[in-house]
Amino acid sequence: MRPWICVAYSAPVSAATAVFLIYPIGQGSFSDGMPLGISGTFNFMFVFQAEHNILMHPFHMLGVAGVFGGSLFSAMHGSLVTSSLVRETTEIESQNYGYKFGQEEETYNIVAAHGYFGRLIFQYASFNNSRSLHFFLGAWPVIGIWFTAMGVKLNGA
After folding, report:
1. Tens digits of per-residue pLDDT, 77-122?
2. Owning domain of residue 113
3. Is 67 contained in some domain?
4. Does residue 151 contact residue 57 with C-beta atoms inside 8 Å?
5. Which of 10, 127, 122, 146 is nearest to 66 (CA)?
6. Poorest-pLDDT segment among 103-112, 124-133, 142-151
7. Is residue 135 part of a domain?
8. Average per-residue pLDDT in the chain?
9. What is residue 121's three-state secondary structure?
10. pTM surpassing 0.90?
11. Which residue windows are transmembrane per the record (predicted)?
């Protein structure tokens, strides 16, 4: 996972670059950029919407779908993992006892979890590979934020 941290971190960096650097240069003044602080940020959002109608930009829509979809997919994945833990604990012992740090075997059964999910939605909506599943969970919101940053860069100038 370590090499992908810089790719994941590029999403907030590209969004910050778009609103703090690219947009003000395109507008001709850094006073048009997003200020720091709550009230200044809300004022910037209202002015940006009034001048550029960013809410109707397709790249902004992809960003919203990325962020909200990523949270939905993560919640669904957490629910599936919790419902398919390999070792169940009793009331007497802690729930954390089902996992020991550094253990070799898997903590949950991905075949059972996503087999159920495939029957619930449709067969190809589930993942059989843990790596591809976790890549998808990380890549979906990052790509959405990239699209929003591109929408600000393309629409703001």
Report:
1. 888 887 777 666 667 766 666 666 676 777 777 777 777 777 777 7
2. 8-88+106-154
3. yes
4. yes
5. 146
6. 103-112
7. yes
8. 83
9. coil
10. no
11. 7-26, 61-86, 133-152
- The sign one gets for the Cα dihedral 94, 100, 105, 111 is positive
CA–CA dist 72, 110 (Å, integer) = 18
**CATH for 24:** 1.20.85.10
42 has a pLDDT exceeding 60? yes
Question: Can you say whether the dihedral through the CA atoms of 111, 114, 118, 123 is positive or negative?
Answer: negative
Judge contact between 99 and 81, C-beta under 8 A: no
Instruction: Name the one residue in this structure whose structure tokens are 């994941």.
Output: 8
Residue 69 lies in a domain: yes
CA terminus-to-terminus distance, the chain: 36
In a domain? residue 100? no
CB atoms within 10 A of CB 8: 14
Q: Which residue type does 118 have?
A: G
- Give the whole-number percent of the chain exceeding pLDDT 70: 88
- Residue whose structure tokens are 């087999």: 115
